[in-house]
């Protein structure tokens, strides 16, 4: 059985990558960076579907030139700003996004920044106890410390 061809413009967590490998034939860029129109068109050439980042702009020029094999395009952003929805609809392309997917992370980072600002005002930025708490908090979230 032939797996559907899925264009991906980034890497994902291990569990997601495993599911992609199991269910799709992944089509990926040679180098992960912000892709231009020609790069995106080349990746879409044989794809059945695309999963793009918020940085991959699929505008009207893309939809005028891209492969007719693509039936679904999704972005893992809160909205569909990277996609020209009217242009996609004109080509009968189904589009999707992941609203709310990063809400928890956004709230955690906002809390970290507020806490850090408050702690700096009260105790200064050189306080070693505050620095240890910040480093532990950042480590727990998988963030770099030193904000």
Order of helices and strands: EHEHEHEHEHH
Structural class: alpha/beta
Termini separation? 50 Å
Tally of domains: 2
The strand count comes to: 5
Q: Roughly how much helix do the residues carry, as a percent range?
A: 40-55%
Give structural notes.
This protein has a five-stranded parallel beta sheet. It has six helices and five strands. By secondary structure, the protein is an alpha/beta fold. It starts with a strand and ends in a 6-residue tail after the last helix. α5 runs antiparallel to α6 (128-141). The protein folds into two domains: 5-96, NAD(P)-binding Rossmann-like Domain (Rossmann fold); 103-141. The longest helix is centred in the C-terminal third of the chain and has 21 residues, at 103-123.
SSE blueprint:
Blueprint: E1 5-8, H1 14-23, E2 25-27, H2 37-44, E3 49-52, H3 60-65, E4 72-75, H4 85-90, E5 94-96, H5 103-123, H6 128-141
Parallel strand pairs: 1-2, 1-3, 3-4, 4-5
Helix pairs in contact: 5-6
For this entry, give a set of tags.
5-stranded parallel beta sheet; Rossmann fold; 6 helices; 2 domains; 147 residues; elongated; alpha/beta; 12% strand
Overview in brief:
By secondary structure, the chain is α/β, with parallel strands linked by helices. The chain has helices at 14-23, 37-44, 60-65, 85-90, 103-123, 128-141, and strands at 5-8, 25-27, 49-52, 72-75, 94-96.
């Amino acid at each position: 059985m032939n797996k559907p061809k899925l264009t991906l413009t980034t890497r994902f967590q291990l569990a997601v990558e495993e599911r992609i490998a199991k269910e799709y034939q992944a089509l990926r860029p040679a180098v992960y960076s912000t892709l231009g129109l020609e790069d995106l068109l080349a990746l879409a050439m044989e794809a059945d579907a695309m999963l793009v980042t918020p940085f991959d702009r699929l505008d009207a020029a893309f939809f005028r030139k891209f492969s007719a094999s693509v039936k679904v395009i999704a972005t893992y952003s809160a909205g569909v700003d990277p996609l020209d929805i009217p242009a996609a609809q004109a080509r009968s392309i189904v589009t999707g996004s992941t609203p709310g997917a990063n809400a928890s992370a956004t709230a955690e980072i906002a809390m970290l920044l507020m806490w850090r600002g408050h702690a700096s005002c009260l105790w200064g930025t050189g306080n070693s106890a505050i620095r240890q708490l910040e480093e532990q908090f950042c480590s727990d979230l998988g963030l770099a410390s030193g904000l």
